[in-house]
Amino acid sequence: MKITSKQYALSLYKLVQNRDEKEINFVLKNFVNVLAKNSDLKLSKKIITEFEKFCDEADGTAKIDVISVKKLDKEIIGLLNKHIAAKLDKKNIIINNKISKNILGGIILKYGDTIIDGSFRKKINCLKNKLNK
């Protein structure tokens, strides 16, 4: 049976909870040995990503990618932060503002598997598709 990166991450998360540093180091050493024994060291990056998701969920943190044409100012980031925190019922919102000229305007929000595309490019494409029908 193949173990997924998410399963490994969940196991690791449960193993390190409420442990001191010395115990965590011991658990990590054994965890890496298990990955090596199962020839799954190549999953390390995905496991770390999934592990961070479990930690964020436990801390009430959400990491959001906000794509815009130019860097958003602090006031806009603050408003987005407040709105997203209320919408997702999270204590901490970490916004990563990425710049892309390709969206032409507006913003795109990415959280986990959810994408909210409020870009001008999408609106133009929708209008174009309606006109072509």
Features:
alpha+beta; 5 helices; 133 residues; four-stranded mixed β-sheet; 4 strands
Describe the structure.
- It is a single chain.
- The protein is of the alpha+beta class and 133 residues long.
- It has a four-stranded mixed beta sheet.
- α1 packs across α3.
- The chain is elongated.
Low-confidence stretches: none
Tell the overall outline: elongated
Structural class: alpha+beta
Beta-strand level of the residues, as a percent range? 15-25%
H-E string: HHHEHEEEH
Q: Major sheet, described briefly?
A: 4 strands, mixed
**Ends apart, CA distance between termini:** 49 Å
Strand order of the largest sheet: 2-1-3-4
Number of extended strands: 4
Radius of gyration: 20 Å
SS field, number of helical segments: 5
